[in-house]
Amino acid sequence: MRWLLALLLLPTVAAHPLLVGAVPDLPGSLPGDEGFAVGCPEACDLTGWTLSDGEGTWAFPNGTRLDAGATLWVAGDLATWASFKGFQPAIGLASGRLSGDLILANGGDGIELRDPTGHAVDAFAWGDKTVAGMSGAIAKTSPGLVYLRDRVGGAWVDTDRAADWATPREHRIGESSLDRPTFTVPSLTLYSSPDSSFGVLTALVAGSSQRLHLHVYELRSAALVDALVAAKTAHPALDLQVLVDADPVGQSASERHATADALRRITALGGHAWLAGNGRYDDWHLKVLVADEAVAVQSENWVDSGVPEDPSTGNRGWGAVVPGAEAAGWFASWMAADRASWDVQPFNLTRYDPLYSGWDRPAAPRTGAYGPRVPAVTLQGPLTVTPLVAPDHTQDPRADPLAALVTSATTRVEAQQLDLATGAKNGIGWSGPDPFLSSLEASARRGVTVRVQAAAPFASGDAGNQPALDELAAAGAATSVLDRAGIATLHNKGLLVDDRVVLGSMNGNHHSRSANREVDLVLQGPGAAAFFRGLFDGDWEGRGAPPDAGVVGRDLHGIPAAPVPTLLVLLLVVAVGRRC
Length: 580
Fold this sequence. Notes:
The protein is of the alpha+beta class. About 25% of the residues lie in helices and about 30% in strands. The protein is built from 13 helices and 34 strands. Helix 8 runs parallel beside helix 9. It is globular, with a radius of gyration of 26 Å. The chain starts with a helix and ends with a helix.
């Protein structure tokens, strides 16, 4: 009987056409601001099929045929749909209207897909409405929200319940669907905060003459803006494009003034500044710079604590510079598309910060007790780099690439995380365990050495990461909270899996992977894991630590970093650190 019960609980797959998508309300108040989609599990002819909301009816044009697995969107107005970069292929609603006006109500409605005999074969409801043929409704409504039927193994789920539409990601109109390349590069420059990030980034900016495209959650470092301004001044034709999140979480009035001042300085020289809203993503949380034919990706914001001038204090974070026209071109392409999306607007000082009247720049960089400083290193390859862009590549916990990477570990896993989560959920009804934490626990249980270091609680009375650390410890992982002189906050999102490295902006929770615009890099090649493992070991032990003695390469100043005894490496690191 158990096998029969399990069989009955499996998602079913329909052979007939299905409703597979709906967008009741596009942002704004343009005409025809809605759309729906029909998919065919098997090849089908939609001639004579209709859609009804109980008041109006619309028929598919004669001869409308779809291949197996194909989706066709029907938009209220094709021009409006295209302006939001709506899903394709699409046809216009008016092209086959039979009677009445088919209007998908924003606050709630129900629609039925009917076969040529008038029989309703599928239905979908949202908001405060229900419809015969579907149990329940997706309650959440929002301009730009896209309801999509879930898929398992590529097949649409069809159980006639609202749960069929509870996807792990809240989809939005105009969302991207990026490919997932892997680049082989001859070298990589690896760096960290507070040790070397300022020197790496300012050198990269100063050496650029063609393009500087920066997409970053927060931009408040006057010294880093100085570097951008100097590069634009030296090369007037340089294409300077800067995008920041329009409303970072917890931003104070003084921080907004600092951001306004930075963007004002950039636009005053002919650069372009953009403000990203929360239309397609909850937060534009990435930290990416394209500089001519190189790309820098890191965990840290362009603020004084994230990229400090004085490396004696600051946040802990990791970064990498990837050289090569292929990688730079790939990043620059989708970043340009993001700047052209409907939820991004040009910076306007008065609208962004009406109270701005100038900004008092700090007199001197902060100092602290962090040391010894670990210099950046340029490793010689070949090395491989695989970008992971959220939510395109990471939205589905059933195929989470970072969870899969941890699950593949054979020897060891080290994770250094600002924010961990024990569970995941969203506003359209999906919930589940956090896939990243689950993969760490599973690896620990099967005997892999797992060490996880997390940030301290964010406020008094806040449990912070402790519940996640407790779960990990119960599974056999070693855990700690970073406590090291000179480190303001463990802001890192770093991961080491055997000989592979993951760094970038994604926090250790599914929300970061499914709702934000984020970028990570997966690095593999000689010395990459050893460099960051040396940093991790030093943080774990609460002391300064050089990269592992096995690292072979050259630092940014061309000084060899050959294998030498640990004590000698430490002395070299301290000496080089004083010169950098």
